[in-house]
Structure of Transmembrane protein 62:
Amino acid sequence: MWHTPIFSGQLLVQSTFAYFCGHLHTAHRLIPRMYVLQPQGYLELELGDWRDGRYFRIVAVDHDLVSFADFRMFHGTQQTTEWPIVLVTNPKDSDFLLPHKEPMYRILDSTHIRILVWSLYSVLDVSVFIDGEFQGNATRATPSGNDLSPLYVLPWNATRWADRNIHEIRVVATDARNNRRVVSHQFVVNRGPTWNFTRLAGFALHPDHSFNLKLVFYLLEGIFFCFLLMPRLIPSKFSRNCFRSSRFCVGLYRLTHFNPCYIPLMGFILYQCCGPTFMGFLIGYHFGVVFSFGIVVGTTFVVESLTYVYEGIQLLIFVILYVPLPVWYLGKIRAISRMESVNLITTEDNTPSVCDRNPATASTVRVQQSVPIRCVGRIPLALFIHAVIFSSLQLLFLIVTIGIPYGALAAFLSPGRLYPVALCWFIALQANEILAHVPGT
């Protein structure tokens, strides 16, 4: 967020060469080179994750021309494979040239190829090739008598390659441990930059993903909302033919026409749009509330698009992993009677229990049964197992996304994550009631 006038921010963007960042990294290595030229005229250069991959970046400014290279640090037996590290600063990689912001003419005016080389061991050889033709071995430049300078130079005549074509420079560096590094890139001398960026990187970095995430989230919410609303809107004379076509349709009809379950289902959709997902101490001792559309910390509201991702995942978990089985179960052709929906206490030989043989003691035995046991006894076995599995997955999702990052208090104060757990058990508990009260159209 800019804290200066808007025109100052625009001037800053106009003068910016590159945005070095590590938000998307390499998209789990799906896009190793996540680089792109933004419409505003600056480069956005994502760097791989240091925590997971130990990626780091070296940036050099050579006569106002900015060059960079990304490397990966290894440990143990693989440590020698990272050396030597090589960065060619002149001629610069034509993919990252910005003629409107850099003095590109200095490549043509330059007298030397310049290369930065680092290694834990003595560098023995730095060979230079252009378009496959050997140009010579670069030698160490020692300004002010510094023998440890990483700069290696090789004289060249830049006008030789000023033919408005694209050329390739390749550098092979070898150290005393016989470690060998080969780097290459395209360069130009008197023509425009190449800007060869992958379409996948452009797709990841160019669009306004904040808007896209909102669109996808509300689209998913709208689809599920209509999915539950349509069976209620279709007139009964048409619904008989439509919903008798499959068991799934019969189950959907019954679920959406039983208000004690239908209202909480619709409430879940609306709650995801406007209700708090969780609450807790988000930053130090600052208590905050997280919604799908942003975060409130103290008296400050922060717009955050990543919350739409988690809420979208939550909706898909509920719709894909939970809803289909109860709907399928409720699609039974035969509706059971009210008496069949109550589990009688029987002995092993199916004779009435002591509760039925001795009316005087019946009330005493019923009192001894706890409410949870009576409730669990009313849940069909298939829905009971399904509810246990779904609850376990939902609680795992809660722990991973809220409990571990923000603590036990935030996990406990997570109505947006606990709502689906309560809803799944409530629907399972009401399954026999739905079959008893709602006919299959």
